[in-house]
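Subject: Interface between my chains keeps coming out wrong

I've been trying for a while to get a sensible model of this assembly. When I model each chain on its own everything looks fine, but I need the whole thing in one frame so I can look at the contacts. Pasting all components below, labels as-is. Any help appreciated, I'm running out of ideas.
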Amino acid sequence: GTGEDLKTQERLFLNSLGLSERPTPSEHRRVPSVFWRMLKRMSTREMEARENDPCMVLEYGVRGNIVRFVQDQGRLLSGWSGSCHGCVEKHLFFNMSVLQPVEQLSLARLEVQFQLDVFRTPMFFLGPQALSVSVYKVLRVTLRGANHEANRRLVLSKSVQLEPQSGSLTLDLTALAESWRKPGRNYGLVLEVQPHPAGALARDSFMAHHPGSALAFGTAEASPEFQASLVAVSLNPLQCRTRRKR
Amino acid sequence: SAVYLPVTPSNVCKPRRLYIDFRDVGWQDWIIAPQGYLANYCHGECPFPLSESLNGTNHAILQTLVHSLDPRGTPQPCCVPIRLSPVSMLYYDNNDNVVLRHYQDMVVDECGCR
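Reply #2:
Try treating it as a single job with all components included. I did that and got this:
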């Protein structure tokens, strides 16, 4: 009886914290440094100024009491040597159903971190390099797949500089992520990465002068690794009231 | 006539120190930080007459008065939190996402008789 009572009490408490059950993380994922900074800043502010609006996330300039680092659950569609010829395509999928219906989404920001694998990248790519990055919204998934042109719409296309071996891309996806919260409406994104044309010219020039290099390296392409995540800030208005002075 | 029972200062309603260590409730695997926090709790009596320091409501003052006349029939007011403060927590959710969440009413700062 006591054990059951404890479980019931725990479940009630976890529900009030927005959790369906006690989380059992499969692996301890990386905690972004900005989260540690926010935690420290919030804790300091909680001690100093309880009377202020506690639900302002200063780092992102929006109201909210929940900041999530949502993991990408998508998969690689095409590698460097795959169908998109010299580029990489990855399907990005962020499960927005983790937000409770009562939560108001204030911000959703896509963050893509690029990093060159220095051991697998030809030497001439180790200087400053540019990548062309395109982000597509997936409108539907048919038998032709998420990366088929008819199934997607371009959201953004830009160059990202890798300085010296890493670079990042951020993109505001608040409106899109809000639409993903509706059941059956989240097909995710496709991220397409390819070496910038200038980089390709440098590569071709290098290959012309060093014809054996492709064999030596296996491939002459720069092959940046990348990790995508979504930072989502939301407000639960029931759990975030502004304290009024008596 | 009113029954007046003297209450020693240590028994009077006030915040008591309580440190909650998440390890004690088996939550250390999913809560990243903090590892615990000073939550405190309220404990003590709300004796007649209620002094200013006990933060009693008008209702509580009258209840102590009635309790002093009829201790069996009417209980003393309750010693409860009247001011709480928030805590922020960093944890893994049910989908392995990292979440930073601000929780209100987690720390007892002040107690009162209500």
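Reply #3:
Confirming on my end. Chain A touches chain B through 39 residues (CB under 8 Å).
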